Amino acid sequence: MKKRPGQFMGSGLVRAMQLPEDVSKGTILVSMQGRERLAVENFKGISSYTDTQIRLITRQGKICVTGRHLKIESYSRDEIEISGIIDKLEYQ
């Protein structure tokens, strides 16, 4: 298989495995349900956590969630779910 300019080496493998692009490249995936629930996939860690602000570390930078009564409902190695009243979501 000949590599085209701009194509990374594992793209054939990714296509063969039928992996979504966000998983294969580590792109963050943010989804909100109203103002009360937020899920972030492909995050790397938590840099700070209070009931008014949660800062997350991702491969693309940091995400700051600001609000009231914020709580981490669940998290795994690469996904986190936050609940509370979300006032602001900021990429840093």
Question: What can be said about this structure in brief?
Answer:
Helix content is 13%, strand content 55%. By secondary structure, the chain is mostly beta strands.
Written description of the protein model:
The chain is mainly beta and 92 residues long. 13% of the residues lie in helices and 55% in strands. The protein is built from two helices and six strands; from the N terminus they run H-H-E-E-E-E-E-E. The chain has a six-stranded antiparallel sheet with strand order 1-2-6-5-4-3, with no helix packed on it. The longest helix has 7 residues, at 11-17. The model has no long low-confidence stretch (mean pLDDT 83).
Strand content: over 45%
Q: Note poorly predicted spans.
A: none
- Gap between N and C termini: 39 Å
- Average pLDDT rating: 83
Q: Name the structural class.
A: mainly beta
Radius of gyration: 16 Å
Largest sheet: 6 strands, antiparallel
Count the E strands. Answer: 6
Q: Secondary structure elements and their pairing?
A:
Layout: H1 11-17, H2 21-25, E1 29-33, E2 37-41, E3 43-49, E4 53-58, E5 61-75, E6 79-91
Antiparallel strand pairs: 1-2, 2-6, 3-4, 4-5, 5-6
Comma- or semicolon-separated keywords:
single chain; 92 residues; mainly beta; 6-stranded antiparallel β-sheet; 2 helices
